[in-house]
């Protein structure tokens, strides 16, 4: 399930709702992303981060990413919540939950989802610091993190 | 054809969305970019470095060589930074 929203979410309540009434889930893995103030000594502090997105394409890309995770791992359920709008340091941006019978599929698929989301979901961050505003540039490290899932993880699971 | 701009492509062109009617010889995304660049200095600046421009046709990632037609929604934006 995909939710793109401006309002905050309660990660604990989402996990409780995610597994409510289910007895076949042995493991839930979660990733919670927060607005981080990366300031180094002497540099301007982060005032806020504004997330812009492409309505329509965002939901479509996230649904495709979810479908890919379901194809690769035996997961029972999946939830992605991503916020947009103006957020302050410490605020929640993104929540990824995956549920499976066993922990390995839940943990791996959760890591896959956030890695792919970061390189495919059409969101852009604009930072407001004490010194002014700037668009955040994409990191090649994120591409490397996403590319590590191209090595046949699905085949390993499907063979098992 | 509907053309959308996001992040700094929006701030440089000065528009988030515009409806355009390119001539028939605009067949691909690359042709469209060359044609859009002539709409003004903001557009020319936005498309000055295509290494940092990504494109989606009808909400799916596309290559610059992809064909475009009058009913398409074409979006231009920098590499994504969500999550």
Which fold does the CATH topology of chain A refer to? Aldehyde Oxidoreductase, domain 3
E-strand count of chain B = 5
Q: How many distinct domains of chain B?
A: 1
Order of helices and strands of chain A: EHEEHEEEHEEHH
Specify the helix fraction band of chain B: 25-40%
C-alpha end-to-end distance of chain B: 31 Å
Estimated helix fraction of chain A: 25-40%
CATH class of chain A: Alpha Beta
Beta-strand proportion of chain B: 15-25%
Count of separate DSSP helical elements of chain B: 3
Mean pLDDT of chain A: 92
Under the CATH scheme, the architecture of chain A is: Alpha-Beta Complex
The major beta sheet of chain B can be summarized as: 5 strands, mixed
Number of DSSP strands of chain A?
A: 8
CATH homologous superfamily grouping of chain B: Beta-grasp domain
Q: How many domain modules of chain A?
A: 1
Query: Roughly how many Å is the radius of gyration of chain B?
Result: 12 Å
Largest sheet of chain A: 4 strands, mixed
Please give the alpha-carbon distance between the first and last residues of chain A.
Answer: 26 Å
Care to describe what's here?
- The complex is a heterodimer of chains A (160) and B (83).
- With 160 residues, chain A is of the alpha+beta class.
- Chain A has a single domain (2-36, 46-147), classed as Molybdopterin biosynthesis MoaE subunit (Aldehyde Oxidoreductase, domain 3).
- Chain A contains 5 helices and 8 strands, in the order E-H-E-E-H-E-E-E-H-E-E-H-H.
- Chain A has helices at 11-19, 57-72, 103-120, 140-147, 153-159; strands spanning 2-5, 27-34, 46-53, 75-83, 85-87, 92-100, 123-129, 132-135.
- A 4-stranded mixed beta sheet of chain A has the order 1-4-6-2, sandwiched between helices.
- Chain B is of the alpha+beta class and 83 residues long.
- Helices cover 25% and strands 23% of the residues of chain B.
- Chain B contains 3 helices and 5 strands; from the N terminus they run E-H-E-H-H-E-E-E.
- Chain B has helices at 8-13, 29-37, 41-46, and strands at 2-5, 17-19, 54-57, 60-62, 73-77.
- In chain B, strands 2-1-5-3-4 form a 5-stranded mixed beta sheet.
- The longest helix of chain B has 9 residues, at 29-37.
- The chains are: A alpha+beta (160), B alpha+beta (83).
- At the A-B interface, strand 3, helix 2, helix 3 and strand 7 of A face loops of B.
């Amino acid at each position: 399930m995909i939710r793109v929203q401006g309002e905050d979410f309660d990660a604990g309540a989402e996990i409780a709702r995610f597994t409510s009434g289910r007895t076949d889930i042995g493991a839930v893995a979660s990733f919670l992303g927060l607005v981080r103030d990366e300031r180094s000594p002497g540099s301007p502090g982060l005032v806020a981060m504004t997330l812009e997105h492409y309505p329509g394409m965002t939901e479509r890309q996230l649904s495709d990413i979810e479908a890919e995770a379901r194809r690769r791992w035996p997961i029972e359920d999946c939830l992605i919540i991503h916020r947009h709008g103006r957020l302050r340091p410490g605020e929640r941006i993104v929540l990824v939950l995956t549920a499976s019978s066993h922990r390995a599929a839940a943990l791996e698929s959760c890591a896959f989802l956030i890695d792919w989301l970061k390189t495919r979901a059409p969101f852009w961050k604009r930072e407001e610091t004490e010194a002014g505003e700037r668009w955040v540039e994409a990191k090649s490290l994120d591409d490397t993190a996403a590319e590590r899932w191209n090595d046949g993880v699905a085949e390993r699971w499907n063979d098992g | 054809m509907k053309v959308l701009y996001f992040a700094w492509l929006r701030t440089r062109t000065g528009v988030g969305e515009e409806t355009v009617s390119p001539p028939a010889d605009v067949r691909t995304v690359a042709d469209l970019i060359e044609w859009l660049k002539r709409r003004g200095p903001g557009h020319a600046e936005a498309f000055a470095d295509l290494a940092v421009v990504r494109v989606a046709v009808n909400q799916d990632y596309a290559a610059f060589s992809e064909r475009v037609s009058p009913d398409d929604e074409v979006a231009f934006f920098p590499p994504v930074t969500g999550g």
